[in-house]
Specification:
mainly alpha
């Protein structure tokens, strides 16, 4: 039974890794297209550059999410630091999208984003100090 579970875990891990690399490859190809398109049209300005930055952050988020999933599958525990890092990157990505698309950032949205990032930063600090994981 244990050998069967190990094989299943191994196969699931391989499937997750294959899907992760497929998603990252698609995002990187999209990123390369944006770069070449921007170079070809000679408009490397803020509005187009933000797409490149968002795609790079998407790759990081995809990698972090799948890494968290793989570690949880293999070690049978969830590393909170990976979830916190992914959440921080996601919120930073969302703020950059708002800033680069010149949308009006409401005061309440700015304060709530700052509070969320601050709380995540505090959680990250506490994790590094006390090394708490969820089994």
């Amino acid at each position: 039974m244990n050998l069967h579970r190990n094989k299943l875990t191994f196969l699931l891990s391989l499937l997750i890794q294959a899907f992760m690399w497929f998603a990252i490859t698609l995002e990187l190809l999209s990123l390369l297209y944006e770069i070449f398109h921007s170079l070809k049209e000679n408009y490397f300005l803020g509005l187009e550059t933000h797409k490149i930055l968002v795609k790079v952050l998407n790759v990081i988020i995809i990698y972090e999410l799948f890494t968290t999933l793989l570690i949880a599958l293999e070690e049978k525990k969830i590393k909170l630091i990976l979830i916190i890092d992914t959440a921080m990157i996601f919120f930073i990505r969302e703020l950059l999208i708002v800033l680069f698309t010149y949308k009006k950032l409401e005061l309440s949205e700015g304060i709530s984003s700052a509070l969320i990032l601050g709380i995540l930063g505090i959680l990250r600090f506490l994790y590094l100090k006390y090394k708490i994981d969820v089994e």
